[in-house]
Design a protein that fits this description.
By secondary structure, the protein is mainly alpha-helical. It contains 12 helices and no strands. Helix 4 crosses helix 11. It is globular and about 45 Å long. The two termini are about 10 Å apart.
């Protein structure tokens, strides 16, 4: 990890390898938003290595919003708004708890300890999703209790590490949506709540300006990587129609499992 970038956020401190890796991650963000949502979680550990753990949380957000715009455009008419509305009352408290957690751990300089916590949360969600047929639908992520837990976890994990992809993937897969409907719901959900995170990130930054979550140079890099996000978004849309429904759903769950293991052991 480049500790100088983590503290100062200066582009000249990144180095060629990290710039190349950041470019790959930008394309992957675009691809995940329009092609295969589960791949987006792989960006979390990649950009944590590029930027440093804390700075990656804020530095990744503008790229996610750029990609969200393409996802909303491509799938704007297919969202299941009923499922989104069910989550909203629970996502908001999760966002607020995540915000305060970032503030507290920013002062303690221990933000990276949250990665394994997120990983274990995802593993538990996967376990419930895979065993719900045996235990009954009351334990499904889409039950009343499951929706409350999913919404709170999604809000918390997206705020502290931009890692709500697996949680939402499990929830939307459990809802047995067709591919187009799942993509539209996913697109609008993340577009709305990633925009909501902007003022919350500003609050985190003001609370601890010496330990930033965004810098001027990180924003410059975001816009420099925009063409890669566009390429990834169009590649994802082109591939999306060729992915069978069962493979699509299983791939999201497998990628969530791999990402959870990565977060736990990184």
């Amino acid at each position: 990890m480049n500790l100088t970038w983590g503290i100062t956020g200066r582009l000249q401190d990144l180095g060629t390898l990290k710039l190349v890796v950041a470019a790959f991650a930008a394309a992957l963000i675009g691809f995940s938003k329009t092609g295969l949502p589960g791949t987006g979680i792989l960006v979390v550990p990649i950009l944590a290595w590029v930027f440093g753990g804390r700075l990656s949380v804020g530095a990744t957000l503008p790229m996610l919003i750029m990609a969200d715009i393409f996802a909303v455009f491509f799938y704007r008419g297919t969202a299941n708004w009923f499922q989104i509305k069910r989550l909203v009352p629970w996502v908001i408290p999760g966002l607020l708890i995540g915000t305060e957690t970032l503030v507290i751990l920013g002062h303690a300089k221990q933000k990276d300890l949250l990665n394994p916590i997120i990983g274990w949360i995802v593993l538990v969600m996967l376990g419930v999703s895979l065993l719900r047929g045996r235990w009954g639908e009351k334990l499904a992520p889409t039950s009343k209790l499951g929706t409350a837990i999913t919404g709170a976890l999604a809000g918390f994990t997206t705020m502290i590490s931009n890692a709500a992809g697996p949680v939402m993937g499990i929830f939307l897969t459990a809802a047995k949506m067709p591919k187009d409907e799942l993509m539209g719901t996913n697109a609008w959900y993340f577009f709305i709540f990633n925009l909501t995170k902007l003022p919350l990130m500003a609050y985190v930054a003001l609370e601890n300006p010496g330990n930033p979550v965004m810098t001027k140079d990180s924003l410059i890099l975001n816009f420099a990587l925009f063409p890669l996000i566009v390429i990834g978004a169009f590649a994802g849309k082109a591939l999306f129609t060729k992915i069978p429904q069962k493979l699509f759903s299983n791939a999201i769950l497998v990628l969530a499992l791999l990402a959870a293991i990565k977060l736990i052991f990184t």
